[in-house]
Amino acid sequence: MKVLGIIPARYGSTRFPGKPLALLAGKPMVQWVYERAAQAELLNEVIVATDDQSIFEAVKKFGGRVVMTRPDHPSGSDRIAEVAAKSDAEIIVNIQGDEPLIEPAAIDLGVKILLDNPAAQVGTLVRPIRDAADLRNPNIVKVALAQDLTALYFSRSAIPFCRGAQTDTEWLQQHTYFKHIGLYIFRRDMLLQFVKWPPGVLERVESLEQLRLLEHGVKIHVAVTEYEARGVDTEEDLETLLNNL
């Protein structure tokens, strides 16, 4: 079964224009992501999908595979779908282009969700929340899980509500809360269907595109990991990452 990893990389980030080309220890961020993704044992191929000629040339320069995509895609999922539509890969992995230290083992764990369960159409990762402050941080997406390790709901709010707890620390003592790790693994046909659906009510309210799948009754299968995603949204995030290398 062919598994294709695609890294969407657009130039026009609102908070950090040109982010894929930002240098981290002398290498552009997109190169870090590409090289680490290429170490995943279950990926047959890795491709960067971009809308920018300078990113295209940077990837070519370090020897990576890259394709140009339309400039008008509203999300990374739409961008990777353009590439997936022309591929014969059966499983497509959406690898975030702003996680330069992504763990290859985390990618493999996500791919195994679909390899081990032929009925699963979409997979993703979650991590137990250890810091009580994360419960109130809307930038950290929380996930409520069913007993079969599928996602019941994703929210920027802390879910479920812990009625018997008085403090956030007590919330963590009384229940295991999970943080969503934004790595998505799709069956190719499901990805192509997903991007055809318009955003639903829940997606628009929470600004979380994975809720579109739940609104259409698609189960998102989950694997629990200790991998901690370290995304770069701003230049300050990049500085912090540099200082911790």
Q: Helix/strand/pairing class, anyone? A: alpha/beta
Radius of gyration: 18 Å
Straight-line N-to-C gap:
35 Å
Mean of residue pLDDT?
95
Helix content: 25-40%
Shape: globular
Q: Total helix count?
A: 9
Low-pLDDT parts are none
| Biggest pleated sheet | 9 strands, mixed
Total beta-strand segments = 11
What is the succession of H and E elements? EEEHEHEHEHEEEHEHHHEH
Q: Beta-strand percentage?
A: 15-25%
Question: What does this protein structure show overall?
Answer:
By secondary structure, this protein is an alpha/beta fold. 30% of the residues lie in helices and 22% in strands. The chain has 9 helices and 11 strands. The strands form 2 sheets. Strands 1, 4, 5, 6, 7, 8, 9, 10 and 11 form a 9-stranded mixed beta sheet that branches. A two-stranded antiparallel ribbon has the order 2-3. Helix 2 (53-61) links the parallel strand 4 and strand 5. It is globular, with a radius of gyration of 18 Å. The two termini are 35 Å apart. The mean pLDDT is 95.
Topology:
Layout: E1 3-9, E2 23-24, E3 27-28, H1 29-37, E4 45-50, H2 53-61, E5 66-68, H3 76-84, E6 91-94, H4 104-116, E7 122-128, E8 142-145, E9 151-155, H5 168-174, E10 178-187, H6 188-194, H7 201-206, H8 211-215, E11 220-224, H9 235-243
